[in-house]
Design goal:
single chain; 414 residues; alpha/beta; TIM Barrel; 8-stranded parallel beta sheet; 17 helices; 42% helix; Aldolase_TIM; FMN; oxidoreductase activity, acting on CH-OH group of donors; FMN binding
């Protein structure tokens, strides 16, 4: 046998002296990317990658406020373990050239079965805050819920993303009139969906925040001063933009748990839900369901949707694991309301697994916050792209062309 183009005989495995032109195929360097954010996001292939970038760019106390959970963080670990036990049942020899990931969420079309969950203190994570998240949601065609504990007002967010599907998340305070004022403002802004969170009679014990000395607003102590040298851009943005504050509430300075404890009403009960239902004409979502009987009761009281949630593991540690509980809640609701879930969702495959077990859609908070911390609005959009790509690939390998095809094809191994 001859070597190509030379006519010189050689055998396989025989060594030869390379010529300069032999290196040509291996020396094709990529063009230098001049945009710093594009360079940063080029290494974000998964949510875990995005979290690593976020960790590098954000002070420890802030990053761990997002990534951490309550007490021993058992609930959060169990949530991730549940997704590791998911088993898909694929079908082969199916035409998967066209995949439809869209769905209807509370009567409106959504590009994915994905909702941006309400998160507090969002401008703390990155100075652009809620407007950046809302614009990314608007561009992606996804719903986004603004938190009562948000750092952007209802009116300002409506202006920042006028075509977004914006929801308002409500905590009922001891001052009911103050809560109703927020509801009225959301209605006046044209928002038609209210999310009532019901798993916070008191604040969870988030020990990372305590140990890190995390406070609202952040304070410059000896510990944080040292951290400033590691994250100068974050501090520069924090100190040179508008002061960080809650947009919807008045509060005293303190840890997140202290702020929550001073405002929330531990006497909240089912009668309060009926009271709110009478005053809100739009869609009503109840977030924090951890028992099938509770799901039945809130639907009977007028809820249009429930969220199977343990607050991302941030409230009661050792709470029920949402993915494991999901099928029982779906059965209890029996088609009378939509069922969403959150906690532990870190990929498009996780999202598809939840849909296969009966969820209409999933809510994510940490996921888009990692994107926000890593690269602002463009980071949030990149997270959506990651979820979409992973979901598409999962469904193609499953032999499924629509979300409905996933029903009954997902199980949890023991």
């Amino acid at each position: 046998m001859s070597s190509p183009g030379t006519g010189t005989p050689f055998s396989f495995g025989q060594r030869r002296i390379p010529r300069p032109r032999d290196f040509a195929e291996y020396l094709k360097f990529k063009p230098i990317e001049r945009d710093a954010i594009s360079r940063r996001l080029a290494s974000a292939h998964t949510l875990e990658d995005m979290a690593r970038i976020a960790r590098r760019r954000t002070p420890k106390a802030v990053f761990e406020y997002v990534s951490g959970a309550a007490e021993d963080e058992i609930s959060l670990a169990r949530a991730r373990d549940a997704f590791s036990r998911v088993e898909f049942q694929p079908h082969v020899l199916r035409d998967v050239s066209q995949i439809d990931l869209s769905t209807s969420i509370l009567g409106r079309e959504s590009a994915l079965p994905l909702i941006f969950a309400p998160t507090g203190f969002t401008r703390m994570m990155q100075y652009e805050g809620e407007p950046a998240v809302a614009r990314a949601a608007q561009a992606a065609g996804l719903p986004y819920a603004l938190s009562t504990m948000g750092t952007t007002s209802i009116e300002r967010l409506a202006s920042a993303a006028p075509d977004a599907n914006l929801w308002f998340q409500l905590y009922l305070w001891t001052d009911r009139q103050a809560s109703l004022d927020l509801v009225d403002r959301a209605r006046a802004a044209g928002w038609d969906t209210l999310v009532l969170t019901v798993d916070t009679p008191v604040a969870g014990n988030r020990l990372r925040d305590v140990r890190n000395g995390f406070s609202i607003p952040p304070k410059i102590t000896a510990k944080t001063f040292a951290d400033m040298s590691m994250h100068p851009q974050w501090w520069l943005n924090m100190l040179t933009t508008e002061p960080l504050e809650f947009a919807s509430i008045s509060y005293e300075e303190g840890t997140p748990s202290q702020v929550v404890g001073s405002l929330f009403d531990p006497s909240l009960q089912l009668a309060d839900l009926a009271w709110l239902r009478e005053r809100w004409e739009g869609k009503l979502v109840i977030k924090g369901i951890q028992d099938p009987q509770d799901a039945r009761e809130v639907v009977e009281a007028g809820a249009d949707a429930v969220v199977v949630s343990n607050h991302g593991g941030r409230q009661l540690d050792r709470a029920p694991t949402p993915l494991e509980l999901l099928p029982r809640v779906v059965d209890a609701v029996d088609g009378r309301a939509e069922v969403f879930m959150d906690t532990g969702i870190t990929s498009g495959a996780d999202m598809i697994a939840a849909v296969g077990l009966g969820a209409t859609a999933v809510m994510v908070g940490r996921a888009y916050l990692y994107g926000l911390m890593a690269a602002g609005e463009r980071g949030v959009s990149r997270v959506v792209d990651i979820f979409k790509d992973e979901a598409l690939r999962t469904m193609q390998l499953m032999g499924a062309t629509s979300l409905e095809d996933m029903r009954g094809r997902v199980s949890l191994r023991p």
